[in-house]
Specification:
alpha+beta; eight-stranded mixed sheet; three-stranded antiparallel sheet; 7 helices; 16 strands
Length: about 280
């Protein structure tokens, strides 16, 4: 049996399409090792025609590590580790901003796996940007300035209270999530724990301010970094087909779910693998 996986790069900095792999079957150790090395190199991987169940998606995700259970989003029936992102007329998209998943905890996710279950007639692409490419494009004096800084990441920046007042139970869940997730600090530049490559680690979704400098300095620097980190040169864009799967390294990327399809419906399933404390 040929277990060799093929990776076709989609750009010089980020993204590759994977072929000769069936995610509905348990991966051999050799297949998983190739997949993981490909992920480290390309930062986001795409696979077509993967009709996986939530349980199969969880089984794949567990190979990468322990899974995160989201404090707000609903989950697949019987599989609490798989969150359901179902956007439609009564539930407008809220992830149409550049963000890195769950950076509001001490150990943000290492890896995420997203499966397309129902798609709009057109639109709904997702874009990813490489924090490694963004960091490497900065000048040396600017890198030196940023290397010593930490940034605050806050759950409430993306999950604002007014969105969670439809029912009393929903509001109570939001309040519990806020109490459980006070703001945390992460380095502005993080070093990948395996590849040891440096990456810019701020995102507009959750980063609120830079610590140890004035508010005006923080605002100016963050505005620049938010713009710089998602320049088209550092991006890859994926046009979804039903049963596509994307796997990305959340430690060194951010992404944007294009909301151009609303009010059509889009249903995605996501597994989120816990990571380590950024350093």
């Amino acid at each position: 049996m040929n277990e060799r996986i093929t990776f076709t790069a989609l750009g010089p900095h980020i993204g590759a399409q994977v072929s000769n792999l069936d995610l509905s079957r348990p991966l051999s150790d050799a297949q998983f090792e190739q997949l993981y090395h490909g992920l480290l190199r390309h930062q986001v991987l795409f696979l077509r025609d993967q009709a996986i169940t939530p349980a199969q998606q969880r089984a794949l995700a567990v190979r990468f590590g322990d899974l995160h259970i989201h404090p707000v989003y609903p989950h697949a029936e019987g599989v609490e580790e798989i969150i359901v992102l179902d956007t439609h007329q009564d539930n407008p998209p809220d992830n149409d901003n550049w963000h890195t998943d769950v950076t509001f905890i001490d150990t943000p996710p290492a890896v995420a796996i997203l499966a397309a279950k129902q798609l709009p007639p057109s639109g709904g692409d997702t874009l990813w940007a490489s924090g490694i490419a963004a960091w490497e494009a900065l000048s040396e004096p600017f890198k030196q300035l940023l290397s010593g800084l930490q940034a605050e990441h806050d759950f409430k920046k993306s999950f604002q209270e007014y969105k969670y007042r439809k029912t009393e139970a929903e509001h109570q869940r939001w309040q519990a999530a806020v109490a459980k997730h006070p703001p945390v600090a992460h380095p502005v530049m993080r070093t990948h724990p395996i590849s040891e490559r440096n990456a810019l680690f701020v995102n507009e979704g959750f980063t609120t301010r830079l610590l140890g400098i004035s508010d005006k300095e923080s605002e100016a620097l963050l505005n620049f970094l938010f713009w710089h980190s998602v320049k088209p040169e550092f991006q890859v864009r994926w046009r979804w087909q039903e049963n596509d799967v994307a796997i990305w390294d959340n430690r060194v990327t951010q992404h944007y779910a294009n909301a151009d399809y609303y009010p059509a419906r889009r249903v995605m399933h996501r597994a989120t693998v816990l990571g380590d404390k950024p350093v």
